[in-house]
Write the structure tokens for this entry.
Amino acid sequence: MDWEKMEERLLTLLNTCKHSELRGALMMLNEVDIARFMETLDREKLLLTFRVLPKDISADVFAYMSPEQKQTLIESIGDNEIRSLIEDMFLDDAVDFLEELPANVVKRVLQNTSEEKRNLINQFLRYPENSAGSLMTIEYLELKSGLTVREAMEVIRKTGLDKETIYTLYIIDDARRLIGILPLRTLILSQDDVKIDDIMDVNPISVKTLDDQEKVAETVREYDLMTMPVVDNENRLVGIITADDVMDVIEEENTEDFEKMAALTPSEEEYLKTSPWQLAKNRLPWLLIMATVAIFTGMIITNYEDLLSASAMGIVLTACIPMLMDTGGNCGSQASTLVIRGIALGEIEFKDLGKALWKEIRVGLIVGGILAVFTFARVYLVNHGSIPVCFIVASALFCTVILAKSLGCILPLTAKKLGFDPALMASPLITTIVDMASLTIYFTIATTIMRMNGL
Amino acid sequence: MDWEKMEERLLTLLNTCKHSELRGALMMLNEVDIARFMETLDREKLLLTFRVLPKDISADVFAYMSPEQKQTLIESIGDNEIRSLIEDMFLDDAVDFLEELPANVVKRVLQNTSEEKRNLINQFLRYPENSAGSLMTIEYLELKSGLTVREAMEVIRKTGLDKETIYTLYIIDDARRLIGILPLRTLILSQDDVKIDDIMDVNPISVKTLDDQEKVAETVREYDLMTMPVVDNENRLVGIITADDVMDVIEEENTEDFEKMAALTPSEEEYLKTSPWQLAKNRLPWLLIMATVAIFTGMIITNYEDLLSASAMGIVLTACIPMLMDTGGNCGSQASTLVIRGIALGEIEFKDLGKALWKEIRVGLIVGGILAVFTFARVYLVNHGSIPVCFIVASALFCTVILAKSLGCILPLTAKKLGFDPALMASPLITTIVDMASLTIYFTIATTIMRMNGL
């Protein structure tokens, strides 16, 4: 059955107040799909559906709802319901949810949380945004060093139900320091009386609470991990990060790069949910900066007023300015995109600058050469330019391509070295810089050639 | 100990031929790090290190080596070694590896593989690139419907060692159809004599062998899955895809979008390993297309020759062309980036076109208004333009911004609707289109204003 049909039936059950049937129907769905269904409901129906949900899955469904629907729901339910909802949620989901709420609602939620959970939540809310600490959950399974396989299995059977994952077990010493990890698989396939210390992995890979989420994602991906333990400065285990959260981080970091590379202030809001004012605010700063820089481009042109307006070839030269600028910008953005992406994936570092630059220069020679021949023919045949004019345009284009390719590789790597985000050195900024450089090259060549030809 | 020190010690052990010590030292490392260490070795040392590796981890280490080092190694080792290496590898790793090798080496490898494994590999090599089938592994654990928890645990203990993951168990009926999934966690926490059919999840989410890997990644991320079952057209279970492979797919798809959005032919090669010829070949097609389109931009300018060269204000108008073009291109690329990214993340669909367009028009009014005021002042103060000229430039900019924002939202969504990749409608193409439109607007406004003023 497809989604639309299912949604229709659920709505019919909801509208005809068949609550038991609705509960039964919802129980056939995945939590994610239930949350998706609830997305379109108004306050009253949302509340009704949520109360119809079986108790054991309502916290899970809640975690998948949109921030707006979460807030609507929290504002509609009573204090007791809030209390049991928060108690049933995994800590990382609860913290994520609270971070999205307005302050007054947070206060009401925290007032209705047990003291123990409240202290934990407050502690988590203090981790900086995008740090490993803010991503982690504390619902992992830890085992004391020295247990046997049989004892470990008993611990798991007793405490495993409340843990987000039990597939990687963390072995700690008396000081709570992380000394090993043990895949559940190894445990299950081992003899009952073996000591876990003898079968555990003694070199666990971990991150620190204050490490950036980008580092976490890179490490998980590099080592193909399912979960990543998080330790404090004394190497004491404080939490774990699961693969599903890491995937979200990867997409988030990619979105941020896409936005920076298009001269946008990064935003975590969904596009359709962002107001035009906010969108305008995210876009204006860079547009204003680049429009200011463009003053210089204008000055360069004004500087060569005589060349452009007085001479007969002036109009052909003017007509070629857009092509020269666009090609330069496109060449620069091709190179910078590859280099920025290479840096993000850990494939290129500052020490490769020489190698990358030499590669870009060779690419520039090939691409620039072909484009120059193409353009020479084009200006000659289409614009009826004289041979000197064709030569001016083609040679300026050739130099611009090589320069654009080189800048596209130098700027992101230098930015990275200086501690800036290489993604800022993408298309828009490079285009503006290449514009100025290419016009200067263009007019210098033009003046020289024309002087040589006595024009 | 940091990586450089460890690497140095390993090299010392390798160079002084202390093979047992080297083996011991390597055993302290993660497979990924061993592969990283082997990356820098020449053929002879690579072979030596590989042979020193404990037998049970050599296939894992091999899977993490670069394609170049894998090929070097395969060419150096004997037939028997190839045989045992392939037998020890997980099927998906073996298939990935064979896809990277030249045909003659593939032949030698397949000749040294058992018939059963060879048939499986051949079957996998036939799945189209980037399909779910090409990503999956067959080392999963399936359970026949009707078993009890105790019987299931026995099956796992007996066969779990060779499986890539045992944390999600797949329940099949007599026709091998996938009828449920069971997290190992649920199994462990259940009573011994319960039937697995009573505790399994009966609505398993799955993909088909020919589904695109992008769909797989989206579904895994949406439902927070650790593994994704792959079924054939009759819903028979044929394989699973694990979260680590999904993360690689996510990064791969993102890289492809970055490349397309910078007018590059996508390539799966690492930047530093791609030859300048190949890079030039990936970049030229779009550059040539856009340089051809730029012919029309040139024609528009030539068309207004009189306006630009004869009148006194011509040079100011010419000087403002780059700023107008750049701002238009930047505005278009900001909008298109957000919309393309929104489509990729499943947040925006074609049916949202009206909503998105209305949003972009409002953003355009705000951003265009502010930029127009800024530009009016700038042309008046810096370029000493007359009031009519300032008005021409500012109003053309205002219209260009709104047009660019609208196109940045219409083009990607329309491309998606027509079955093209929205990422192609990014900055370079939009810039070229906006260039032509903005120049036409610019000159039309200029001619009108000047005629009105009798200039």
